[in-house]
Fold these 2 entries.
Entry 1:
Amino acid sequence: MPIMDSKTGKIKRDYTIEELVEKAREMRAYNMVSLTAAGSGHTGGTLSVMDIAAALYLKKIRHDPQNPNWEDRDRVFWSTGHKAPALYVALGEAGYFPVKEAVKLRKLWSGFEGHPHRLRLPGVELSAGSLGQGLGVAVGCALNAKLEGKNYRVYCLNGDGELDEGSIWEAIMCAAHYKLDNLVSIVDRNGLQIDGPTEEVMKLESLVTKWRAFEWNTIEIDGHNMKEILAALDEAEKMKGKPTVIIAKTVKGKGVSYAENVVAYHGIAPKDGRSGKESLDRALEDIGDSSFTKEKVNKLLKIADDYQKEVNKKIEASMPQFSRNYWWNSANGMKVEMDATRNGFGRAIKKLGSDKRVVALGADITSSIRMNEFYAEHPARKKRFFSMGIAEANMALVASGLAKEGKIPFIGSYGVFVTGRNWDQLRTTVCYNNFNVK
Ligand SMILES: Cc1ncc(C[n+]2csc(CCOP(=O)(O)OP(=O)(O)O)c2C)c(N)n1
């Protein structure tokens, strides 16, 4: 069901397959302008998921952008919150707000946060960012439809790297247990995550066999073929008694030559800014939407720029000012040299690595937290490094097992994940057992 008027039940706007292909092209272009204006964001995954986003928001789901909380709307959960810019351009194209607004990506108070915030933007179903959580929420939402006899459908966009998280498999089991045929997971199978190819970080294959064994209806498609995407979504709707997973083979960075299949383009905007080899201009050339003239792009970038200037003014006005300088806020001796904590971590683990008992466990952000310093100049140490995938809870437990046998394991991820997602493992297993996990 395409975009609807929730009051009259009439279709507001429908698209042909050819039009959807063009819309996805336009969405990629807006996406790249947004990322460039922000100077940061996730190029790779937003581009790989874009055709699916266009198919869902412009053709498949029943929704009314003028009535975002319509009770009977279909729900789409973006479990991979880092792909938020693709969600924003999809919502904009569908009519939740003018799509050009999405260029205010990552700007304070704009609502277009780096990861989606449900309370700040209409059409966003779930605040997300910590991977592995959306599918469970989607299960709850689908269960509610069954309980209340509602016929809305529930879609969840998952990343393939995200499937490393155990909580995903708990949700998979739960959905099959409750025979949630109103639920569809779409896996953006682009084959890459942050540390490299999925099969090197944590082997996923055979993915189809795994989902089937968990008793899901399993469909494999080319995630850039609009016809196949729509056919799979229709097939899922006909399925009775089982949830459906659509494993969509995609290309990370699809449509932008310098980003396609390039691991480094996971979480960055075009390296060269507006023009140059790896720039916005080059990206737009590759994408090939002729409506994105220099003039139009300038105007879009100006929207972002003007907005930022207003934000800066407001911030400046709200900052407390000293009436004059004192020794403690201005003397040279009081100034400190700043260095990121992760750099200190990298230096320390490099040094400590000479102790053969030291082992390092990574959770798919190894270079980002400088854990790679452990083996960068000491290749022999690589065998004492273990990639755990995006699975912080299991990482703490595996480290515990190694510690129990006399190793000194260092585990690492971003602070929120390595304390939050494995808090109980730290409490019960690491602490109560007094295991020497760092
Ligand atoms: C719990 C958690 N751990 C780590 C991260 C950091 N992180 C953000 S994206 C990402 C890789 C995700 O890979 P995938 O799901 O395949 O997404 P894609 O490659 O399609 O962007 C990681 C590890 C996170 N957001 N959440």
Entry 2:
Amino acid sequence: MNIVALVGSLRKESYNRKLAEWIKGRYKDKFQLDIADIGALPHYNQDDELNPPAVVAAFKRQVAEADGILIVTPEYNWSVPGVLKNALDWLSRVDKVLVNKPVMIAGVSTGMMGTIRAQLHLRQILQSPGLAAKVLPPAGNEVLVNVASQKFDEAGNLVDAATVEFLDQVIGRFIEWVGR
Ligand SMILES: Cc1cc2nc3c(=O)[nH]c(=O)nc-3n(C[C@H](O)[C@H](O)[C@H](O)COP(=O)(O)O)c2cc1C
């Protein structure tokens, strides 16, 4: 199984990137996880969508060939970061490679709310006709990792036992969702 991750934070010490890397390691026997370089994408420009830059074409191909997509994102100002929205806007046009693609959402925040507002907004965005992704339903599957400084160790490992146990369950359901 081949999963591609979109990480909504570009910073080197990003907790969301750490979570994506941790997922890649913990479930390596279940799927291969490749983290897409969405920071390398230019700003979406409709003038270029029929003949996009090579980096955009390669990204769309990577998503098209994936069995499923994992989005791991912080919340910026109660919504999704621009870099993630930009990537989704590219995906939403011309060949629309996210349509019916299985997607799982997770997020990490430093505060209490665990990216819930961003995730609700992201679910709405993913329902738009150009994206129309097959998102893992929220009931029982909302991965909202709050107070990040208490959940990861110095090396970037997720060390909160309850969060690890919950992720094991949600990832199991995502694998089933992808296999349907
Ligand atoms: C521009 C910006 C906006 C933010 N807005 C929110 C927000 O709306 N809600 C929230 O819980 N945290 C917010 N935060 C705090 C993030 O949860 C925190 O910076 C987190 O570490 C970002 O994820 P990262 O570690 O993967 O970069 C914001 C941070 C930044 C830099």
